[in-house]
């Protein structure tokens, strides 16, 4: 123990000043660390730029009938490092004739909106990276609650079913939110909109839309396609490849293109218009697949006068009659 002179008033002042200096130094260090932390995470009390969530992905996942109409199922998935932990919103609208999916413009008051909040505990709409949920658009009663709601001031048709004869365009964004488990809490900005995705639902066979279009219609109305690819001769062709084929004239009597044009139209009439082909048309389709097996319809050439070419032309003639509404009970659609 120090047995020197007794402490005086000025000694106490020095001691208090030193203590304040240490406290000030500690506070400054804490502020610097918090600022560095905020800068690294992009949020919190340091005022750094907040991280932005990435747009969810959307894909068509089928559909079906509901009272008064139809619904389209879309699959929404979280993407990026964080997913969509605070939920997401979906917009949808009817795609106008002659407008491509990518070119569609979203005008306020003309599209539908629904919010799927990820905030309630154990919400199915809280999506981690690669986490997905399926939503039936056109059937709001099927949406798990709580957390799902239609937007305000949306068109009246948004709460009802969809039509099987129309194509619909969709987009989505991830909601903003705050991660309260982080210290300090981290705020995440909402994502940008996803790319437009277009889907449609096939009408049932025998319904009012069970009619057929020619190959000329299908090549000039790509928005009416309900599929993004077709299998022909055991090989899958994407929509853009098939459109290129449809726009390619069968020069020098190329039987491959003559048949591919009619087969593509017939398959689209069956897939998208819900038409059930008569037996001889079904036989012609099977023959067409067999004749085109092992041949790339985008490049192959078979002379129409050759034995295989003659069989291709014969099958194409049956399909042409089918696509033109020449069969009883399967009329040509009104354009």
Description:
With about 325 residues, the chain is an alpha+beta fold. The chain is built from 6 helices and 12 strands. Strands 6-4-3-7-10 form a 5-stranded antiparallel β-sheet, with no helix packed on it. A 3-stranded antiparallel β-sheet has the order 1-2-5, with no helix packed on it. The chain has a two-stranded antiparallel sheet with strand order 8-9. Helix 4 runs parallel beside helix 6 (about 305-325) and helix 5 packs across helix 6. The longest helix is centred in the first third of the chain and has 33 residues, at about 10-40. The N and C termini lie far apart (about 105 Å). Residues about 10-45 have low confidence and may be disordered.
Low-confidence stretches: 12-46
For the residues shown, what is the average pLDDT?
83
Architecture of the largest domain, according to CATH? Sandwich
Structural classification: alpha+beta
Shape field: elongated
- CATH class categorisation of the largest domain: Mainly Beta
SSE ordering: HEEEEEEEEEEHEEHHHH
Radius of gyration, CA atoms, in whole angstroms: 32 Å
Distance between the termini: 106 Å
How are the strands of the biggest sheet laid out side by side? 6-4-3-7-10
Strand content: 15-25%
The overall strand count is 12
Major sheet:
5 strands, antiparallel
Number of helices: 6
Residue share in helices?
25-40%
Number of domains: 2
Q: What would the CATH topology of the largest domain be?
A: Immunoglobulin-like
